[in-house]
Write a structure and sequence with these properties.
The structure is a homodimer. Chain A is built from 13 helices and eleven strands. By secondary structure, chain A is of the alpha/beta class.
């Protein structure tokens, strides 16, 4: 770095998780120890905040608030799904990012997000190099989908995994009690392209009677015939059926299964518009198996469920944030922090580094050997992989009113220095 | 009682809750102290198990399992929604109940359920009197809907209230972070006729910025025009909207609001079949307000969420179970245990008694003064009423695998003595 002290910026991107604030906390607490870092600014609502020069000064937040981020779900700095215009087509967006960085003497960019964010960070970094603007870009992995390449798993996943497995267990007990009336329950979880979240619910099935009895992931080709036959088999054996399904179900060609695919579905749906995958399965089950089915859709609640988050996940998320700052101080650039699992039976996890570009271009799906031959549940190998990630209960603060206390940042605005862009 | 010792039966009915097992635990632990009670039997799957003579002997369960019921959601004995044939039309079902009771020398009937169950218990009791069969019937209140008459509130409600309020808070934080993309979130909760569950989410709104911003209950007449205007107002003020809605929305005539009611809805829906109320609201919001909306439907997970249940609720549920046995020992009959709130600012709750008939015929909705004038949120009076019920976090056991440990009863069958009935 040219100067002794330069400013840093932290931004959060994409779908929030229970622990992305913990990663930010790791950045802030580690940055506070670094003499080379002056002020730490935050982008309000991710890269959108950078484009809008909507920044706030994290240095003015109380230490207790920063510490409270470890126990606060979602993205306290604000996030976005804003996609920058392509670097090839037009430099405008990326130029603007560097203009804003330069205006505030920002030389460190810590970006917590998924593969799109790593792509952005990489491109910003490359453009900075072209312009001769000294900048260090370090990515921090974040996604409940757990589908990032180059890392053993992603911060955010352990918590959603623990929560959805618990939900499968609890709603499963409900079905156990009321199966003479509500014989089948479907739990719809997130995961349009990768089945990691659905897979995690498989951990709840400690015995064959336990829910879930069937788990469908996008990685295993779905057919309506097989599905109906699966449900009939479980119903015959147990007199009840508990199913978990990810948002995305795909056929053998990788196409999303929709209402007009397959004979059962065609018959059942007619011209009906559906509420979602779970609703689609319900209609087919009631028509073809002849048992009453109902469904739950956890939606955004699953990725925000701090009240029963994984302590392992919270700690690793913090570790990734702190590691990002340490790496930057050591002169590392254009990398994402990864989680590296030690070999052997005892779970141990440290951090590593991956090229931003490799993460941006990659995707990690549930491997076939984590899914059983039938394509309707997880294997022991999968249990061994996911199991350690959900261990430990993250502490939260509960108020006198019986509800969690989550912090809010003050978000003291940084004075704008540039003309309005968007 | 004619004899020094007679048997008791316990049954659970209707939709499970997080704490109905705690009530059963109260019955069993109190009954164990009573010299007048011999064996305690359980009906497998509620009154259906009685009709089928599908009983099991609770005396053979381990004490640790019984104690574990306090920390186990749903109905461990099994529940049902089986409706007995009317007493006026045909005695058959009720005669069968008494035949099964007589065959097993059952003289105490403890029935945990809602108003239908209290109706059943009352009718069984009256028929027993006609037949000269000595029987004591005591009801134990249970319902997440909190709509039972004669009791201040219902065991089961405090836990669902704590959980849905937490869910509103957490999904609300998700919306806070991603409002530039997903501007509106709808949380659909249970409650087709009574808005108590939706009302509880109002507790999460500690400040005007906090979710939920709008809460719709069946007790406040719903119109599409007003709804769209509400959403527009919140969006204008905060740039985001978090809505909670019960399953049931009713117009001023008490009719359920459907897709073809009201001009906005008519335009928006065409011939579309809907996934539920939340989906219906989403379609109207996107069309009329022009902001993206998404929704979560907690379904059965809300009534089974032992992992963040109210300690107050768990204790009161246990207290109701124990009080049922104590009352029976004192010669009380044909009554349901009620929860009685002491007057004054400090919350204190004891048990009382109500006629089974009065509970069977009653229903308790959210009073108008608990809903604001706009009909879109709760009042301070409502907060004061619900607030104490969600206090305290019920302890659960979490296994080494990071997931809750919930008990299962062994359910050792009692030998059948009668011919098959159904």
């Amino acid at each position: 770095m040219a100067k002794a002290k330069a400013n840093a910026i932290v931004a959060q991107s994409g779908g929030p998780t229970a622990v992305i604030n913990s990663s930010v906390c790791g950045v802030l607490q580690e940055a506070a120890k670094c003499k080379k870092i002056g002020r730490v600014l935050a982008a309000h609502n991710g890269i959108l905040g950078v484009l809008q020069e909507d920044l706030f000064d994290v240095s003015t937040e109380k230490a207790s608030t920063i510490e409270g981020l470890k126990r606060t779900p979602s993205a306290a700095m604000g996030s976005c799904r804003h996609k920058l215009k392509s670097l090839d087509q037009a430099h405008a967006d990326f130029d603007r990012v560097l203009d804003v960085f330069a205006a505030h003497d920002i030389r460190y960019f810590f970006y917590a997000g998924g593969n799109d964010s790593m792509d952005t960070a990489d491109k910003v970094n490359k453009l900075a190099a072209q312009r001769g603007y000294e900048l260090v870009c370090i990515g921090i992995p974040k996604t409940v989908d757990n589908d990032l390449a180059c890392t053993d798993h992603c911060p955010g996943y352990g918590s959603v995994a623990k929560y959805v497995a618990t939900c499968a267990m609890e709603a499963g007990r409900d079905t156990d009690a009321l199966y003479t009336h509500d014989t089948c329950t479907i739990l719809e979880v997130m995961g349009r392209n990768a089945g990691w979240i659905a897979a995690a619910t498989g951990l709840a099935a400690r015995t064959p009677e336990d829910a879930p009895h069937l788990v469908y992931m996008p990685e295993a080709a779905f057919t309506w015939d097989k599905f109906v036959s699966d449900v009939r088999e479980v119903y015959k054996r147990l007199g009840k059926v508990f199913i978990v399904v990810g948002e995305g179900l795909k056929d053998k060609d990788g196409k999303y299964v929709t209402a007009d695919s397959g004979s059962f579905a065609k018959d059942a749906f007619g011209h009906v518009q559906l509420g979602g995958v779970a609703d689609m399965l319900k209609v087919v089950i009631e028509k073809e198996v002849g048992i009453k089915a109902r469904w739950n859709k956890l939606g955004t609640n699953q990725r925000a469920a701090m009240h029963f988050a994984s302590l392992t996940d919270v700690k690793e998320a913090w570790m990734c944030g702190a590691a990002a700052v340490k790496a930057a101080m050591k002169g590392v650039n254009d990398k994402m922090i990864t989680l590296v699992r030690a070999k052997g039976d005892k779970y141990k996890c440290t951090t590593g580094l991956a090229e931003l570009r490799d993460v941006a271009n990659g995707e990690k799906k549930v491997p076939r050997d984590y899914i059983n031959k039938q394509g309707n549940h997880i294997t022991e190998a999968c249990r061994r992989h996911i199991g350690p990630l959900i261990k430990g209960e993250a502490p939260i603060t509960v108020g006198k009113d019986g509800l969690p206390v989550y912090v809010r940042l003050r978000r003291k605005p940084v004075e704008q220095k540039l003309a309005k862009y968007i």
